[in-house]
């Protein structure tokens, strides 16, 4: 997260605990990938906590590359495939399921590209303006395309879902992205991931409401 190691570790601990509780809220296996989002965000925030330690304490400097790559794996490679995958499993209607599957394939291709770039190009992190800035040397054409595709595959599948509760999640994610882009453009990766992580706690409520709706419809 963008303020300190303590903040990152605190957020990571809370989210990990919340994620464990949320995964226990599922009523069907198809909800598990969606329910696991807070848990995965918690692990991601813990990774950034180690990035902070490596940048602020000399005795942990040797962790910097591993912690930076771990955080960027979650931020760049995991979410573009996990979000459409979770939406695909959660979806109950075939027309939407078919469309979301297309976004899942697109997200999978993006994730594979991101994994390749993480392994082939130099990346590093630094503290800039009291926030963590990630310096990435990917080819510029790939960066330009990946940013657009990333936004599409992480937001659109939730918006087109037939489940109203899933669209709520998409709205808060989109709002957090817009606000982060306006106020924290230089640290977009770090700050948006933090806000999205906190917002993922609402998944518990979404699952609870969806299960109530399902029982009433049965």
Shape: globular
Mean of the pLDDT scores? 85
Number of helices: 9
In total, how many beta strands? 2
Gyration radius (Cα, Å) is 17 Å
SSE pattern, N- to C-terminal: HHHHHEEHHHH
The number of distinct structural domains comes to 1
Helical content band: over 70%
Kindly report the spatial arrangement of strands forming the biggest sheet. 1-2
Could you say which structural class the secondary elements and strand pairing correspond to?
Answer: mainly alpha
The span between the termini is 42 Å
Strand count, sense and barrel status of the largest sheet are: 2 strands, antiparallel
Q: Which regions contain 5 or more consecutive residues with pLDDT less than 50?
A: none
Strand content: 5-15%
Report on this structure.
This protein is mainly alpha-helical. It has one domain (5-217). It has helices spanning 5-23, 32-35, 37-56, 64-90, 94-120, 140-159, 164-183, 188-199, 202-217; strands at residues 123-128, 131-136. A hairpin with a 2-residue loop joins strand 1 (123-128) and strand 2 (131-136).
Brief write-up:
With 218 residues, the chain is mainly alpha-helical. It has helices spanning 5-23, 32-35, 37-56, 64-90, 94-120, 140-159, 164-183, 188-199, 202-217, and strands at 123-128, 131-136.
């Amino acid at each position: 997260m963008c303020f300190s190691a303590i903040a990152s570790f605190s957020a990571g601990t809370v989210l990990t605990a919340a994620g464990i509780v949320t995964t226990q809220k599922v009523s069907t296996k198809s909800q598990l990938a969606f329910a696991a989002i807070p848990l995965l965000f918690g692990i991601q925030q813990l990774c950034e906590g180690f990035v902070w330690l490596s940048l602020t304490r000399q005795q942990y400097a040797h962790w910097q590359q591993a912690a930076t790559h771990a955080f960027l794996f979650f931020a760049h490679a995991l979410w573009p495939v996990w979000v459409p995958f979770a939406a695909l499993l959660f979806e109950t209607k075939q027309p939407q399921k078919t469309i979301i599957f297309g976004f899942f394939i697109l997200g999978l291709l993006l994730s594979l590209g991101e994994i390749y770039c993480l392994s082939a190009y130099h990346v590093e992190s630094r503290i800039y303006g009291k926030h963590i800035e990630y310096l990435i040397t990917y080819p510029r054409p790939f960066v330009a395309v990946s940013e657009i595709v990333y936004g599409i595959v992480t937001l659109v599948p939730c918006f087109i879902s037939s489940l109203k509760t899933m669209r709520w999640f998409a709205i808060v994610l989109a709002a957090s992205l817009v606000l982060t882009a306006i106020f924290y453009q230089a640290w977009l990766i770090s700050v948006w991931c933090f806000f999205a992580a906190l917002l993922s706690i609402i998944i518990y409520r979404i699952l609870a409401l969806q299960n109530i709706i399902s029982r009433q419809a049965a």
